[in-house]
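When time allows, look over one protein, given below as sequence and C-alpha cells. The question is which stretches look regular and which look disordered:
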Amino acid sequence: MSAPELSRMIKPRALPPGEMAIEASEVERAALAARFGITALPALSARVSFEPKGEAVIARGSLAASVEQPCAVSREDFVYEVAEEFELRFVPASAPAAHEADEEFELSSDDLDEIEYEGEALDIGEAIAQELGLAIDPYREGPDADRVRAAKGIESDEDRKPSGPLAEALAALKK
C-alpha cells in the first residue's frame, strides 16, 4: 500500500489540546487531485478537535476545499467550494467491536464513521482525505451545462417527465 497523500499522525495518548488546524500543501493537493480523478485541488484545509472516549478517540471538525473538475455535461473545467462537517471515531484495530459476538445487529450512530488504526498513532490526514473524496460529486454540472444541452438539443433533467407504471403510481400517490 502506498503512503497516504495527506498524512497527519496523532498519538491517542497525547492528543493535541483545543482545535488543530490542517492545511494541505501544494504537493499534497496535487496528489489528492490525482487520487480522486479531478483536475486540481486549489485549496484544502480542516479544523479538528479530539476527545478521548475509553480506547476510542472522537475527532470532530470541518473541512473546506476548492475543487476543480470537468463539468459532467460540457467537460469544461470549473471550480466549486466544498464545506463538510465530520465526526469520526478512531478505535485500535485490536479493540473488539461492540457487535462482534452478535449474529444480527443494527447500526446505530455510534457505529458509523468508525476507523480502525494500528500501532501507536492514528492518521487524521487520511481520514480528512476520505471525507473529501465522499464530498466530491463526479457528476457535478458546471455553469455552462444548460447552454451546452440546449446547443446539442438535449433535455435538462428538469424538462424530463418521468414515465412508466412506477411514475404513474407515484403520481397517483401524490394526489
Observations:
- The chain has one domain: 9-174.
- Confidence is low (pLDDT under 50) at residues 98-102.
